[in-house]
Amino acid sequence: MDVSFLGGPYPQRGVGVVAPFDFALDRELWRWVPDDVSLHLTRTPFVPVEVGLDLARLVSEHETLGDAVRALNAVAPEVVAYACTSGSFVGGVAGERAMCEAMTRAGALPSLTTSGALLDALEELGARRIALVTPYTISVTTSLEEYLAEAGITVTERAFMGLTRHIWKVPYRDVADMARRAARGAADALFISCTNLPTYDVIPQLEAELRIPVISANQVTMWAALRQLGTRAVGPYQRLIDPAARQGPVLPEEQEGWA
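The structure assignment produced for this chain is given below.
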């Protein structure tokens, strides 16, 4: 069979992703990625520790990051993203910058983290006062608030779940309930933390209901990585990645799949 008419495979640009060993949402990351970009994922080594500050420190050690980036070098990505919120804020703003520098040294290419991407996204949206949603324990949530405060961001209200495992199993309805509780104060935007928490489909629904930008850990990671390539993330009516969505919200009933 002559398949020359297909013309492919088409050239791809690569984004390397370093994720913690328990990361379970590969498909969610792909949903923000345009067709001409490929994701190349690698995991940090397994450690038998529950989700908490100790685990955040273990999965963000510079030696671990360096090994992961060197493994990704085999497929020559153009940028590397560390997809973990707690692992990139646990050391504060200076710690996040040091992580990027360590990854850049290991791969000789631009590097970013989820928490660094969060600050860039808030700057893009002009948001200085945010509502905060996390699946974390109180100690991890407080550490995130400290990171944000160091960057000049005020948390107006927060809602957290206190989970130490199986975060990827949290349903959208629980995420939406937390968002509503956190958004009671006057906030410029709402941030849903943790790259292991599903958020893709709930973002436009919450933006329509709460009437403020809603951003999530996975969303800002992909937005920042793709921006580094000079291209845009894709997604239905999400204010961070769709300038048209910033003109005003649509009603929830106009969004397909909202229940």
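Interim note for the steering committee: The longest helix spans residues 92-107. Residues 16 and 80 are 4 Å apart (CA to CA).
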